[in-house]
Design a protein that fits this description.
Largest sheet: 7 strands, mixed
CATH topology: Ganglioside M2 Activator Protein, Chain: A
Strand content: 35-45%
Order of helices and strands: HEEEEEEEEHHEEHEE
CATH superfamily: Ganglioside GM2 activator
Helix content: 10-25%
Number of helices: 4
CATH architecture: Distorted Sandwich
Radius of gyration: 19 Å
Distance between the termini: 37 Å
Number of domains: 1
CATH class: Mainly Beta
Length: 190
């Protein structure tokens, strides 16, 4: 009986969600338009992911804006929000401060694609294309790994601070699976 309950728990917590990037606010005042999808899917953790993407900037990005991110994980029969912990999870950010984190060490994947690493270098009415270079997703401490696998929904809402208006909203649904250990079938390893 315990094995049946454990099996149902594992199956209900981890399914397969097709990758979806959805515009959840079709605003005429939008700041950016996003499009893209990972080449390797489902996403493997730890591991590499290549995400060719297109970002079109319609308005100045220096704001000030607030980015309200909600990260939800599927448990049993519904999604539940993960709290903000050490600036990861369902948190509120200054989007330019996030980009400025890269100011001194812009990843080569972004540099090779001429993708801006600070708000000051983003040009209005421009389309940026991120080439499918691999990004490495490192592993977590084993105590936290259980939360990294499964089906997720991440919603990002960009709010204009001066008016309180939501000017962008994107929802991202995806699956993260555990990386399989590499097995050696060499008879000399025995």
């Amino acid at each position: 009986m315990i094995l049946l309950i454990l099996g149902l728990f594992v199956v209900s917590c981890h399914g397969y969600t097709p990758f979806r990037l959805t515009d959840c606010k079709n605003s005429t005042r939008r700041v950016v338009t996003l499009d893209g999808a990972p080449q390797e899917y489902p996403i493997t953790f730890p591991g590499h992911v290549s995400v060719p993407a297109t970002v079109t900037v319609h308005r100045p990005v220096e704001g000030p804006y607030t980015l309200d991110v909600t990260v939800e994980k599927f448990f049993f029969f519904d999604y539940f929000a993960l709290p903000c912990f050490s600036n990861v999870g369902s948190c509120t950010y200054d989007p330019c401060a996030l980009l400025n984190w890269f100011r001194n060490a812009c990843p080569w994947q972004l540099r090779e694609s001429d993708f801006p690493c600070t708000c000051q270098t983003v040009t209005q009415n421009t389309t940026y294309r991120l080439q499918p270079h691999p990004f490495y997703i490192p592993g977590l401490n084993s105590a936290w790994q259980w939360i990294a696998y499964g089906d997720f929904r991440v919603t990002g809402r960009l709010i204009e601070d001066a008016t309180g208006e939501e000017v962008n909203c994107y929802s991202l649904e995806f699956t993260v699976q555990a990386a399989l250990p590499e097995l050696s079938w060499d008879i000399w390893d025995w």
